[in-house]
C-alpha cells in the first residue's frame, strides 16, 4: 500500500473511531433527535456542493425508494438509537458492540445471497465472535439496563444491512450523490421535531457538547465520507473495510483517556474474540487466477 493509502487508512481509523466519544459528550445537553438533525444538516451543507459540482445529485435521486430505505437503515434509525443508548452506557462499550457488525453482516449476506457459503472457518469465526459479544454484554448487563443493549443491537443490524442495500440497488449510483442525498433526506426526516427546539438549545448549550456536535458533523460525517471514498479509490473496497476492525480499539482508548471510562481485562478479551471472529467470518477464499486472454481493443470515450 502506498504512503497515501496508509495516510488515508490511518485517518479513517481515527475519524470513524471518535464518533462514540463525541456522541457521549454531545448527548449531555443535546437530545438524540436534535443531534441527528444537526449532524445530517451540517454534513449535507458541506457535502452537497461537492456532489453538485460533480453532477451526481440527479443520478442519485433516480432510485429514490432504495435511497430512502438506505437513509432510514444506515443513517436515521441507527444514529438515533446510538445517540439515545449513549446517554446510559460508556462510549467504549458502544464501540465494542458495534465491532460485531461484520459478524451480523456475514449472516445477512448468507440469508440474502445463496452464493454466499458459510465455510467451516467462517462458521467458527461467527461462533468465536458471538462468544465475545456475549461476554461483553454479560459483563455490562447491569450497567445501563436492557433498553440501551436493545438499541445497540438495532444499530448493529442496521449497519450490517445498509451495505447490502448499496450493493443490490445503489451500486451504480455515484458515491458523493448517495452520501449527500441521504444526509439531506435524514435532515428532512428529523427537522419537524428538532427545528422547534433549536432556539432553546442554542441559548442553553455549553461549549463541550456544541463542539462535539460540530465535530460529528464536520469530521465524522462530511470529512469522513471524503476520506473514505478517497481510500476506496486508492486501495480498493476490500482493503478499505479493514478500518472496521480498528475503529472499536480507537473508541476504547479515547473513552479511557478522555472520559476516564474503565477498561477491564474482560473487555479486552471480549474485543479480541470479536475481532478474531469478524476476521474469520468475513474472510473469503481468493479467486483462482484467470487465464490470460488476448485483449480486445477498447473504444475511445
Describe this structure in words.
The chain has 301 residues and is mostly helical. It has one domain (3-281). The protein is built from 16 helices and no strands. It has helices at residues 3-15, 19-26, 32-53, 57-61, 64-85, 91-98, 101-112, 120-139, 141-144, 146-169, 175-194, 198-204, 207-235, 237-240, 243-258, 265-282. Helix 2 crosses helix 6 and helix 6 (91-98) runs antiparallel to helix 15. It is globular.
List keywords for this structure.
single chain; mainly alpha
Layout of helices and strands, plus pairs?
Elements: H1 3-15, H2 19-26, H3 32-53, H4 57-61, H5 64-85, H6 91-98, H7 101-112, H8 120-139, H9 141-144, H10 146-169, H11 175-194, H12 198-204, H13 207-235, H14 237-240, H15 243-258, H16 265-282
Helix pairs in contact: 1-13, 1-15, 2-6, 2-13, 3-5, 3-11, 3-13, 5-10, 5-11, 6-15, 7-10, 7-16, 8-16
Spatial shape: globular
Q: Into which percent range does the helicity of residues fall?
A: over 70%
Low-confidence stretches: 286-301
Termini gap? 30 Å
**Count of helical regions:** 16
Our estimate of the beta-strand percent is under 5%
Task: Give average pLDDT, whole number.
Answer: 84
Order of helices and strands, N to C? Answer: HHHHHHHHHHHHHHHH
* Largest sheet composition: none
Structural class of the secondary elements?
A: mainly alpha
Q: Provide the domain count.
A: 1
CA radius of gyration is 20 Å
What's the count of strands?
0
Amino acid at each position: 500500500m502506498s504512503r497515501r493509502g496508509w495516510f488515508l487508512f490511518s485517518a479513517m481509523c481515527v475519524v470513524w473511531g471518535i464518533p462514540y466519544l463525541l456522541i457521549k459528550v454531545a448527548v449531555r445537553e443535546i437530545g438524540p433527535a436534535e443531534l441527528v438533525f444537526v449532524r445530517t444538516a451540517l454534513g449535507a451543507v458541506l457535502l452537497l456542493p461537492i456532489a453538485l459540482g460533480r453532477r451526481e445529485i440527479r443520478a442519485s435521486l433516480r432510485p429514490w425508494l432504495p435511497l430512502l430505505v438506505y437513509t432510514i437503515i444506515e443513517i436515521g434509525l441507527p444514529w438515533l438509537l446510538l445517540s439515545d443508548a449513549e446517554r446510559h452506557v460508556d462510549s467504549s462499550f458502544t464501540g465494542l458492540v458495534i465491532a460485531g457488525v461484520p459478524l451480523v453482516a456475514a449472516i445477512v449476506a448468507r440469508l440474502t445471497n445463496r452464493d454466499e457459503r458459510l465455510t467451516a472457518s467462517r462458521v467458527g469465526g461467527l461462533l468465536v465472535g458471538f462468544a465475545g459479544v456475549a461476554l461483553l454484554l454479560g459483563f455490562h448487563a447491569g450497567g445501563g439496563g436492557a433498553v440501551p443493549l436493545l438499541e445497540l443491537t438495532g444499530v448493529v443490524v442496521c449497519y450490517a444491512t445498509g451495505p447490502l442495500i448499496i450493493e443490490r440497488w445503489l451500486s451504480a449510483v455515484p458515491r458523493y450523490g448517495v452520501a449527500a442525498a441521504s444526509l439531506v433526506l435524514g435532515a428532512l426526516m428529523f427537522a419537524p421535531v428538532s427545528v422547534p427546539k433549536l432556539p432553546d438549545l442554542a441559548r442553553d448549550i455549553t461549549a463541550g457538547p456544541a463542539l462535539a456536535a460540530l465535530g460529528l458533523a464536520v469530521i465524522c460525517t462530511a470529512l469522513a465520507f471524503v476520506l473514505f471514498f478517497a481510500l476506496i479509490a486508492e486501495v480498493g473496497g476490500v482493503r478499505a473495510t479493514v478500518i472496521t476492525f480498528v475503529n472499536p480499539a480507537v473508541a476504547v482508548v479515547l473513552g479511557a483517556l478522555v472520559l476516564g471510562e474503565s477498561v477491564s481485562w474482560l473487555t479486552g478479551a471480549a474485543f479480541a474474540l470479536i475481532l478474531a471472529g469478524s476476521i474469520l467470518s468475513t474472510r473469503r477464499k481468493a479467486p483462482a487466477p484467470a487465464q490470460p486472454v488476448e485483449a480486445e481493443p477498447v473504444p475511445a470515450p
